[in-house]
Write a structure and sequence with these properties.
Elements: H1 3-32, E1 37-45, E2 48-59, E3 62-69, E4 72-81, E5 84-93, E6 96-110, E7 119-129, E8 134-141
Antiparallel strand pairs: 1-2, 1-8, 2-3, 3-4, 4-5, 5-6, 6-7, 7-8
Amino acid sequence: MCARGKWANLSHSMRFLAVPVILLVSAFSAFAADISGIWRLMIDTPSGKVESSLELMQDDGKLTGTVQNEYGSADIEGTIKDSDVSFTRKVMQNGKPVTVATFAGKIAYSGKAESFSHVAFKISGTFTMYDGSQGVWSAEKK
């Protein structure tokens, strides 16, 4: 067999192995990213901890939902890409939506890639309030 023939077989083998790997990664991405549902949100502010309920709805890379706590309810809008999440919390003021906080975080998953049982179970990150104060937050799926 000539040298060219050996490389041709190797190339064919590599292509044969690449297809399942690409399919596995694509399937994992499709299952891993959905964080829709109700979450227990803990916000650690400079004035203390605030527990809230966070309801998220995901449509492709777009997030919408609401945050509810003892201070009331507010809408959120944001994005998700891979394990990165960001959203803003808005309230109505004088008939106009005003951003009161911006959140950024990472998703932590449980499960194994082989079984596609990855479940988003925690998101954590930092936030910045309208006045520039900052803090940390975390959310666990209910």
